[in-house]
Amino acid sequence: MIDRFLSQSSKSTTMSDDDNSLPPSSSSTTTQLYLTNRKQYQLLSMSSLYIAIKAHEPIAFASDMFASMSNGLYTISDIEEMECYILKTLQWNINCPTNVQFAYHVLSLIYKHLQSSVSVDDGEESSSVVDESTWCFILDETRFQIEYALRDYSLSNIERGSTVALASILNALDRVTNEDEKQCILHTLLSVMKEYNFDSLDQVYVVKDRLSSFVSGNDSSSSSSTESSEVQEAATTTPVSSPATSTASSPVTTKSVNSTTSTSPRTSMWSSSR
């Protein structure tokens, strides 16, 4: 919430600058003020926590409790005014899906495509054409990529969340060494992208290359560029199918094979340093 507020506040003008505890009136100095003024940043953080608890928790705390937690540094009025300022700046969009949620939703659509029906004695049972260990790896690696993107301003504040999510999925697929499973997922991903209002494939790959270089710490990503050309070629031959379409007739559905990946899933940047 804080990063989105700082990003959006530069586009809006509001309120007054009577003292140091109120939101600033000049939009051009808003971000700098909150990042350089400790008192303002603490007020922003406390008010953001206050909003988050009210929006997502079953029990809300009154503003006077937060005022008392500040040991007299902020009044009830300060916290409530900052709350209104944050909500107006974000246009009340406080439940926007995160990049991770975007990625998991796309992956769920891919998974639905890749399910195949297997006849068993007691009826129908669904099984995936991609090994479970591969899915676990892709989920972990995609989350790692997205969390790493938070360290880059343009990736976390300028690019669309869905674009960063798609780029992270593609980077995760780069590390899957089972070519059959990789191509299965890749072709299905392209079909899903054609069904919805995502950024163009070219733009997704610009973000993919930037994220890949950022994660690896290199200035360029030659392997990513090679992969990009392969996907561009695949995009011209992949048929579009609806997410609700059965995969029994889908040309990208192949027999299940065991999956191996080039390396073990990487640990989240929040749990330990990479």
Please give a structural write-up.
- It contains twelve helices and two strands.
- It has 274 residues and is mainly alpha-helical.
- The chain has two domains: 2-89, no CATH class; 99-249, no CATH class.
- Strands 1-2 form a two-stranded antiparallel ribbon.
- β1 (115-120) and β2 (123-128) form a beta hairpin.
- α3 (38-56) crosses α5 and α6 runs antiparallel to α7.
- The longest helix has 19 residues, at 38-56.
- It is elongated, with a radius of gyration of 23 Å.
- Residues 13-22, 24-28, 117-122, 218-226, 238-261 and 269-274 have low confidence and may be disordered.
User: Given the helix and strand composition, which structural class is it?
Assistant: mainly alpha
Largest sheet, spatial ordering of strands: 1-2
Shape: elongated
Low-confidence stretches: 13-22, 24-28, 117-122, 218-226, 238-261, 269-274
Mean pLDDT: 74
Domains, number: 2
Gyration radius (Cα, Å) is: 23 Å
